[in-house]
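Justification of computing resources. Each target in the renewal requires a structure prediction run like the one illustrated here; the chain below, 157 residues long, is used simply to show the kind of job we budget for.
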Amino acid sequence: MQTSPFCDMPLCSKKMVLCSVSKTRVDSKATLTFKTECDTFMKKLMSQLGQDVGTYTYTQEFQIGYKILNHENFYMFLRGHRINEPCTCVSSVFVSLPDGSLKKEMDFSVLSKCFGVEWRGVFGFKVLVEIFFKEELMVEGLRDCLLYTSDAADDLL
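Resulting structure tokens:
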């Protein structure tokens, strides 16, 4: 219920069913409120209706980049490929030199919807980026992860 104008559309209906794990600003306006994850709710609902949910493979493109802050510092980030698209399946991101030294965890910024970390004085080195995905999303048949590498990444630093 955060993406405008879509978040306001259900309020135009006479009756509304709301499914959310957290309290929302429109809970009091809902005819029915379910405090659970939407996937769980929909699987149970479709099962009661005798419908097979099937499987769905979610894919998301990431963009890894950097921004030079000054002659000594740069900011490295990981974000969804599209504007304002958060990395919904990522739990944490670590960046280090290839030998594992200078390992830093990227912080997630709600405002910029991306993971990022500021580095100082490590220009000219290749870096290793480790992306950890949310465990609950790694259920077999629900989500597959394909790792791609690119020579273009060598040119980042």
